[in-house]
């Protein structure tokens, strides 16, 4: 007799598999919830950090808001970012 109850799904330690978690604000302020960067698929793409992000300038940040930051790649640079102006 064998049963297949041996499901070993690895749950994320950070969010316990919820996909988001809470962290307490500074100075005991209101707790905030944030998307878990461990589980986030970063499927919405990335936006470029510019000017105001110190050492993270020129890096790419996840649009889902999980806080994941990665280096800019060649592909990112290839994305046309200019808004075409209609000149008369
Ligand atoms: Zn997680
Ligand atoms: Zn993400």
Protein topology:
Blueprint: E1 20-23, E2 32-35, E3 46-48, E4 59-62, E5 69-71, H1 74-78
Antiparallel strand pairs: 1-2, 3-4, 4-5
The structure holds zinc ion (2 copies).
The site of one zinc ion (ZN) has 7 residues, from loops.
How would you portray this structure in words?
The protein has 88 residues and is mostly beta strands. The protein has a domain at 20-76. Helix content is 6%, strand content 20%. The strands form 2 sheets. Strands 3-4-5 form a 3-stranded antiparallel sheet, with no helix packed on it. Strands 1-2 form a two-stranded antiparallel ribbon. A hairpin with a 6-residue loop joins strand 4 and strand 5 (69-71). The longest helix has 5 residues, at 74-78. Bound molecules: zinc ion (ZN) (2 copies).
Tell me the span between the first and last alpha carbons.
Answer: 80 Å
Instruction: Kindly report the spatial arrangement of strands forming the biggest sheet.
Output: 3-4-5
Order of helices and strands: EEEEEH
Q: What is the strand tally?
A: 5
The percent range for helix content is under 10%
The best one-word shape is extended
* Rg over alpha carbons: 19 Å
The helix/strand class is mainly beta
Quick check: average pLDDT?
83
Bound molecules: zinc ion
Biggest sheet character? 3 strands, antiparallel
β-sheet strand percentage: 15-25%
Oligomer: single chain
Provide the low-confidence segments as ranges. none
Number of helices: 1
